[in-house]
Amino acid sequence: MQGLLLCLVGVLLVGCGDGGHKTVPRSRTLVMDCSSLQDCSGQIKDYNSFNPFLLTGVSKTGWNFQYEPLYFYNAYSPQADNIIPWIATGHEYNEDYTEVTIHIRAGVEWSDGQPWTAHDLVFTINMLKDHAPHLSFSTDMQTWVKSAVATDDHTAKIALTKPNPRFVFSYFTNNFDNGIPIVPKHIWEGQDPQTFNNFDQEKGWPVASGPYEIFISVPAQRVWDLRPGWWAQKTGFRQPPAVERIIYLTHMEETKRVQNLISNAMDT
Prior knowledge:
This protein has 268 residues and is of the alpha+beta class. Helices cover 22% and strands 21% of the residues.
């Protein structure tokens, strides 16, 4: 394992051809350090867990891109409409913005092959409401959501406690790396979200919908590799990312980060 780690985070950051390990060229590898000094100083504290809802000890080393949102917001687009439908194909509010109907894209799948449906969205909302104020975004859902139901696999209706025309944008659109991660009901149902670590590589956990899967997760680094069978590629919605491997290292002080950037051992 030590030799493999050196190959993954060494100067050239290429695969070593060690056994069946995947070789990824440096030009297709993105290397960065964890941004949180509190959660990644010396080691990635949650290297053996993957619960994005915990209030402490959660680093943004994967869940922030693996749990795909209903929409992405592109702040740098010159176009007037810079909201990109992703898991959702659209939504509409009622006249006074106290209810929103969300339409889920057909063909979306979780990484274990199970369909991504409106029931997953509704389950996530209700789970957060039921555990307020102990989970991230739980107080928000308790404050704003009167009820959330799935009328079929591709339609969710959310009744709000008061008018909020920005509800979907604020909570279910990835805007500047903010937004509620939507989790698979068939994995999280029956679990205590305050203690569930959601990490077991033998079981294929974490189950998410994004294009990567965990290759290595140890205190020193978390490594994601592009996985086959991503729903967006299968359905023709999107091509797979050009980045084939993502490496998160522990938090670095500025001088060390600059040295690594200069030597091409890091990218950001």
